[in-house]
Amino acid sequence: MLGLMQDWPLLISRVIDHAAREHGDREVISRSIEGPIHRITYREIRQRALKLAQRLSRDGIKLGDRVATLAWNSWRHLECWYGITGVGAVYHTVNPRLFEDQILYIMNHAEDRILFLDLTFVPLVEKLADRLPTVGRYVILTDAAHMPQTTLRNAVAYEEWINEADGDFRWLEFDENTAAGMCYTSGTTGHPKGVVYSHRSNILHSMMSLQPDCLNLSSRDTAMPVVPLFHANGWSFAFSGPMAGATMVMPGAKLDGPSVYELLETMQVTCTAAVPTVWLGLLAYLEQTGKPLTSLKRVVIGGSACPRAMTEKFERNYGVQVLHAWGMTEMSPLGTVCSIKKDYADLEGDALYDIKMKQGVAPFAVEMKITDDAGNELPRDGQTFGRLKVRGPAVSRSYFRGEGGQILDEDGWFDTGDVATIDPHGYMQITDRAKDVIKSGGEWISSIDLENLAVGHPDVAEAAVIGIAHPKWDERPLLVIVPKPDAQPDKEKILAFMQGRIAKWWMPDDVVFVPEIPHTATGKIQKMALRDRFKDYRFPGV
Ligand code: ADP
């Protein structure tokens, strides 16, 4: 017997229809690339996205075609996502922080037909265009007045181009499992691989992300995704904001502390999200100026581990709740969020921050477990480390064009490549990337724990820990530190600071100071490059 409910495919067009109908006057406020602050409503965004969809169809874009964007967060970028998916085409977010060769690789691999790009990226794309044979048109996200002279093929100013359509158009209807978006993983080894989201997975993931223990967005919120739309599907904000009817603030290209602060305050933002590096910039600015945060309630921090000092500063000094989140491009991307369950509601002070350091609890629609190398499930005791595996309706089952082969085991679990513990209340804590964990005397040492501890020292700007070969223990930790400007930490001071806060056998065997640590395109420490730099290093006396 079948249920007798309506067949209502979960299509992305329904999200913007809903926002325009139920929250039509709510605004999307952007720092435009041209400079001024720009305001538009959901109703207008829908109308312009319809024009965009109509114009794309006229250019021959059809179901399944890939259409790329190389753009900061703005109302135009948002319109692109809705316009592209509205004709059943696939938005492909290109991360401008990738190396040029990687950009060429992913755009050719995806066979992008049109590229929407911000003014910022015109010089970069002009250099690459000869090697992008599939791109038939470049649409520059600006108006006629700001349109640059360019050699790009069939280049047009976005505003003029969409105004060639009148918006008298209906969203296409198709199966909810149709591809909607693509994002390549940054690929620390080998080529980047294409993750392909569907309409259904994006809708389910966004509904999941709106739950009170996740982003908890409502129509009373003003949400500012500082995390770019090109980073891991923009952490759902492009859909969850309009779904909830939240006011959105799109910060454009300026992601430094003072610029982020200016928008947080002038727009009275209540919820924001980004990687830790962005918040380092904001907190440094707040400390220098002594300025307050008057409206912000929640900050979602993920992409890499949120240092304890960061959580404590936000919560203790500014009264802003930190939601530590973990996820990955392959998970749409949210996997867990660290909100406090009833079981921990009575904790205070350090005991509470111990919990807040964890990456958190899986919401409905994410299943997770930890296993040993043979695939046996390990206990949820908060102590045992294992490979973290996940499954759910917004988790990848394969990469684009089958790259990387079979990625699920026979029960449908995806190995995240992370190593984690899960405690009896379901709080997951990442202890390392499987390839970064330090194997010492048959036991594992978490490089992330050591890094988090080291950055708590007032003289330390950034810390990374890598395993160095050791004749007796197999590997031992080397702590690499970037000192704060004007600070002159020494090895003894740092080790004394760490003493007593970790097991004795976890203590780094040596500390070295460097002016900078290499990062990936998404701001993660490049452990491979660091290991390479220290490949000839030997511990003193070994
Ligand atoms: P990238 O950010 O490099 O484009 P992903 O977002 O897919 O790629 O990266 C996912 C990985 O980032 C996770 O598997 C995990 O190792 C790391 N990560 C994400 N969030 C956290 C977090 N809160 N704490 C620790 N590691 C994290």
From TrEMBL:
Top-level EC class: ligase
The AMP-binding enzyme C-terminal domain extends over 450-524
Known EC number: 6.2.1.44
Keywords annotated in UniProt = Fatty acid metabolism, Ligase, Lipid metabolism
Which PROSITE patterns does the record match to this protein?
AMP_BINDING
The record's section on CDD domains has: ttLC_FACS_AlkK_like
UniProt catalytic activity: 3-(methylsulfanyl)propanoate + ATP + CoA = 3-(methylsulfanyl)propanoyl-CoA + AMP + diphosphate
Among NCBIfam families, the record links this protein to: PRK06018.1, PRK06187.1
Q: What is this protein called?
A: 3-methylmercaptopropionyl-CoA ligase
Taxonomy of the source species: Bacteria, Pseudomonadati, Pseudomonadota, Alphaproteobacteria, Hyphomicrobiales
